Amino acid sequence: MISIVTPVYNEEGNVVYFHDEVTKVMKGVDMDYEIIYVNDGSKDRTDELIHQLADSDPHVRALTFARNFGHQIAITCGMDFAIGDAVITMDGDMQHPPELIPKLIEKWQEGYDIVQTIRTTTEDAGPVKKMTSAGYYAFINAISTTRVTPGGSDFRLMDRKALETFKKFREHSRFIRGIVGGLGFKQTSIEFEAPARHAGVSKFSMRKMLHFAMDGIITNSTLPLRMAFYIGVLAAVAGVLVILHVLYCVIAGQAVPGWATMTILISIFGSLNLMGLGIVGEYLGRIFEEAKNRPLYWLQDDTASHADNPYRETHDHL
């Protein structure tokens, strides 16, 4: 069996079309399958639509979060509930082409445990997004011991044994691409060109993208902590040189009122202190979140629990 996990957030214009396209592809694959939709607190008709799909299609299971938990947590939830021998995760906006599914399965049947897709380009991506994306991957790979493939997406296939290992990673600040990259196992990749969204607009605002980027950096490297220390050392050396210069001016009788020097020093060391505290604060904040040991998510509804849902009859052992 193949499990297809799809997180959805305000995708009323995409989810039915996506489902039809995936169903067409899976009918051409000689395997049983399930499609798990995880509604990440949508405000539109997405939840209603995936429940309709679950009522009409025995291959569908709809999970509904009690609130918005984020894209990475939604993917994790679907993988927790998946029962397939292999699990494919993909977005429901048609930027992850369903026609690639047979190729992922083919690579899995060749013996690969993880088949990762790599975006070579995105149709509706502007030059700024392409440049910042390339710079981000270069930076994170420079500071991390775990390589994150440039252009890698959350469109991938994982074998059951790789999935069971992945499910042991329960941190709240999740960067799945980094986790999967560090799992090991036998991995391969497939390149693709991401088309434009079928409908709607991207849900990744600038704020969300920056938060996602920060999660990727902090969860994969402690180098920012070391950088704060090294910058502090350089600042201390610069401070000593400034002090020596001031002493020389005093001895040579060239001293002037020291307000300018004091202002410069306060500005330099004040900013460095705040920067260092900010970096340490980010790590402490993550530690605080993990120490609370709260669940990653909780559900408002699961269509498999409905007595009249065909999914319950087909997968009653759940």
TrEMBL record:
Broad class of where this protein is predominantly found: membrane
UniProt-annotated location(s): Membrane
Key words, A-Z: Glycosyltransferase, Membrane, Transferase, Transmembrane, Transmembrane helix
Domain (Glycosyltransferase 2-like): residue spans on this chain: 3-164
Transmembrane segments: 228-253, 259-284
One Gene Ontology term of the molecular function aspect: glycosyltransferase activity
Bilayer topology term: Multi-pass membrane protein
SUPFAM superfamilies in the cross-refs: Nucleotide-diphospho-sugar transferases (SSF53448)
CDD domains per the UniProt record, alphabetical: DPM1_like_bac (cd04187)
One GO CC term, this protein: plasma membrane
Top-level taxon: Bacteria
PANTHER family tied to this protein: PROPHAGE BACTOPRENOL GLUCOSYL TRANSFERASE HOMOLOG, UNDECAPRENYL-PHOSPHATE 4-DEOXY-4-FORMAMIDO-L-ARABINOSE TRANSFERASE-RELATED
Name of the protein described by the UniProt record: Putative glycosyltransferase YkcC
Organism: Dialister hominis
Record gene name: ykcC
